[in-house]
Structure formats: structure tokens, C-alpha cells
């Protein structure tokens, strides 16, 4: 069975340098290919290189494949995604990323590649949809309520809070840990990242708050 590799970031790219180095190490091929999944918006083309900026400092010959998320794809695009040595899920509108990825053929490919040892990274929205439970903050959706959705299932028995310090998510993280009854919640600040190898937290760079269900007081939330 292959090792699994999951890298999650609390804010926008680029990756912090140490985590970027770990990501490159897991690829097994410094001339490999990275797929970047993103939602098209104004200025996206200028912004996209930030996702791999730190990676190129460790592996200048990496090739990059950008896949704009939508409702349909060519077989060539799907084959390129399947052949990628690493997959990066971008940030932005979390609900949109969830709708375009989770419960679609893209999710099936990501999940299959993840189990085969392909390194997966998620920034902000990409991090939030990665666990089994995708929890979207009131500050991150137009309804301004906490949304509990199905995620990709790449990280089990845990939830993620992105922009943890910027959005002052301390009480929010306690709430979602209690509501979902997972063992742990990870509050990741902007410019910070964490790496899970085989579901185990292995590397932290920047600021991370860990909220444990066993010590959170189990408050009740409707």
C-alpha cells in the first residue's frame, strides 16, 4: 500500500518554503507534473503561477497543468489529471470548489490518485473540502451561517478552519469540532501549512491551533 500525502494551507499561495520542499520530496520526480485545479475569475491567469512558485525553487523543471473547473472535461484533460505526480486545489469560493469537485468525476480521480500515493495540496477552499467533513464558515458563504457538507474524505476524523487568525475562528473551530464530534480540529493561519503522511500530522510551518474534542468541553450547538 502506498503512503498518502496531504498538504493543507490556511490562506493564499505560495506555499511556505519548508512545506514546499516536503511536497517536492514526496513527488519522487523533480521533473514530474503538477495539476492545479482552479475556478476561472478575473485575474486568474496572472495569479495562478503563485501556486507553484515555491515548488519551482526546489524543482525548477516541474511541468504545470492548469485545469479550470467546470461541468465537463475532455478525456485528454482527465488523463492529464490522472497522470499528475501532484495535485493542487486552489482557493476562493469554497462552495463553488465543493460543487465543482466533490461528488464528481474529478473527486473520483483525486481520491484514486491520493490512495496511489499522489501528493494532494489544498489552499483555503481546497483545504476546507479535503476532509470527510467540509465545514464552511459563516464568513465564507452568502448565507452567513455554518454549512456542513460532505468533503473529499482525504482526511478522516478531523475538520479544518482556514484563515484561523485573520477571521478570528477560535469559537467557530470549537463549535464545529463539537458539532461533528471528530477527534480534532485544525485552525490554520494564513501563510501557514501542515502536512499529513498516512493521516498523521508530520510537519507544521507557521501558525496552527489544534482543538481536541476530548478537551473542548463538548458545548451543544443547534
What is the strand and helix layout of this fold?
Blueprint: E1 5-9, H1 17-27, E2 33-38, H2 44-47, H3 53-58, E3 63-68, H4 75-83, E4 86-89, H5 94-101, H6 105-115, E5 119-123, H7 125-128, E6 133-136, E7 147-150, E8 158-161, H8 170-180, E9 184-188, E10 193-197, E11 200-205, E12 208-212
Gross morphology is globular
Number of strands: 12
Strand content: 25-35%
The residue ranges in which pLDDT falls below 50 over 5 or more consecutive positions are 218-222
Explain how this protein is built:
- The chain is built from eight helices and twelve strands.
- By secondary structure, the chain is of the alpha/beta class.
- It has one domain: 3-Layer(aba) Sandwich (Rossmann fold), CATH 3.40.50.880.
- The strands form three sheets. A seven-stranded mixed sheet has the order 3-2-4-5-1-10-11, with helices on both faces. The chain has a three-stranded mixed sheet with strand order 8-9-12, with helices on one face. A two-stranded antiparallel ribbon has the order 6-7.
- The longest helix is centred in the first third of the chain and has 11 residues, at 17-27.
- Residues 218-222 have low confidence and may be disordered.
List keywords for this structure.
222 residues, alpha/beta, Rossmann fold, 8 helices, disordered C terminus
